[in-house]
Amino acid sequence: MATSANPSSSPDGNAHGGSVIDRGATGIRILLTLVFSIVARLVEVVLTVIVLFDLGFTLITQKPPSRKIREFANQACTYLYRIARYLTYNEAEPPFPFTDFPDVFEPPTSDYDDVEYVPRDTARRPA
User: Fold this and answer.
1) Are 47 and 76 in contact (CB under 8 A)?
2) Which of 7, 23, 46, 110, by CA, is between 20 and 30 Å from 63?
3) Which helix (H) or strand (E) holds 115?
4) Which residues of 33-70 are buried (b: 16+ CB within 10 A; e: fewer)?
């Protein structure tokens, strides 16, 4: 029985032209995808708490949050980005804790460090 060749197939038999992924590796990836989907939701909750804290702090003190809080939030954003890259097959290596914690790819802006904050005078001035 003769088989006809599919012109859109690559020589390795994959119609998409890429490499073939082992089913065992796919099974592990499915488990890691479930775990990292949950981790991503937890990181989002942490970021939401940080944002609400930052807004409340700024509203009350009229000062920006500390640099350490902004750096931590930036690291959490970078970690969330790495998780998203892994989940969408844009990165083959699973993120932390399977690799080193990712370096921040964009440092926090220093605009808030250079600004001098002067509280508004809330006392009424005589007319």
Assistant:
1) yes
2) 46
3) none
4) beebeebbeebeeebeebeeebeeeeeeeeebbeeeeb
Q: Is the dihedral of CA 95, 96, 98, 103 positive or negative?
A: positive
Query: Considering the domain boundaries, does residue 108 fall inside one?
Result: no
Instruction: Return d(Cα 22, Cα 13) in angstroms, integer.
Output: 14
CA dihedral for 84, 28, 91, 72, sign (positive or negative):
positive
**Number of domain units in the chain:** 1
Q: Would residue 44 count as lying in a domain? A: yes
Q: Does the residue 82 lie in any domain? A: yes
**pLDDT, tens digit, for every residue of 36-46?**
999 999 999 99
In 10 A of CB 80, how many CB atoms?
20
Dist. CA 75–CA 29, nearest whole Å: 24
Domain ranges, residue 29: 24-87
